[in-house]
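Re-run with default settings, no changes from the original entry. Doing this only to confirm the output is reproducible before filing.
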Amino acid sequence: MMMEWNMRSLLTGTALGGVLGAAAVGFAAMAWPQEEAGKPEDPRTATYQQIELFAEIFARAQRDYVVPIDEQEAMSAAINGMLTSLDPHSGYLDPEDFQSLQVQTSGEYGGLGIEVTMEDGFVKVISPMDGTPAAKAGVMPGDYITAINGKPIIGLTLNDAVKEMRGERGTELEITILREGIDPFPVKLVREVIQQKSVTWRTEPGDIGYIRVATFNERTTLLLEEALDGLSRGPKPKGIVIDLRNNGGGLLDEAVKVADHFLSGGEVVSTQGRRPVDVERRNASKGESFKGVPMVVLINGGSASASEIVAGALQDRERALVIGTTSFGKGSVQSVIPLGADRGAIRLTTARYYTPAGRSIQALGIEPDLMITQVRLTQEELEKIERWSEADLPHALQNESGEERKELRMPDEQPPEGYEGEDFQLERAIQMLREGQTTASRMAEKAG
């Protein structure tokens, strides 16, 4: 998901108990704002009273709970609970979590290789990362992880669950997966050092360039430039496919740089903070790679955040035809704000982002120009599919327009009966580029 470090996007022991215990008395003696008779109560008064209540409850738990409590852990949980109640992407990062996040955005870290969130007390998979243990084991977007090594996840925070899944390279782990329509089943994995190559490329028959962008980390732009250089060494491509499927996002700056390579000037994305003056516009530089070469962008429900910025920019600027299924719908920016030495950081939602046409895709997603599914569906099967998107997460921000995510519908295209290929969406993208159908398809979609 998209973050910003201070502000970069990307996304006390016994003494403490004593202090808070005293605070329960001290707050009572504070000079609360006094309201004149007949005037409405100052909203700050209720806040101060809640702070007093918190201090009293903490002191009572410290004194009377059946076993001594871990005061630091309890305070961290209280802070995190406040932040996670705001929206699903805000939270507190203790020093260890903060360090792990910094390592993760560098593009190399230990783990299973999945983008996850928390829903209904379980860890829910947004997308598995290419080439990682999770992807190799067949973990899919929308899967619930209900237990780790037989221990139920219920009661753990998302950060705690992620810690449980991390470990030394070569060590084994078993997770229990709950998937729609299937009984829970175990998946055994071996932890690896995740050295995710965020961009891969190849030339498909017919001089079609294929570029897969799996995530947006600190190496994405560099690897994209290597891919473009490799494509330029052969015959000029007749078309280019940018594959953003199951790309869960990453760094905002990297998303802007990637889109910049395919645009010549003009806006890529804008962000709007809490105040009207908090508007920032990111523009492309002059010049673009493979100017005039037709492009197709592939997206699906696992395409989130930074990948939606790229798809939305190329779609609004009419630089590429977007095909696949509706994206995840994460249209917010998180800032990671360090709190000082050994105090960790907070990840706070600080802005919404907008495509060049001024669209907020928060809770809506990017609608493809042409909806193409990977599997063949009947109307009955479509109605049984569980919707999985940003709009379905607890405490998710609503789209400020009041618009709601569109209901699932039958696709414009789906695999024919008896299809035995491996990737129908990619095959159609390549075919459309070879046959020069991208412009015609876009015009037909707009007319419809």
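Confidence is low (pLDDT under 50) at residues 1-7, 11-32, 440-448. The first helix runs from residue 13 to 28.
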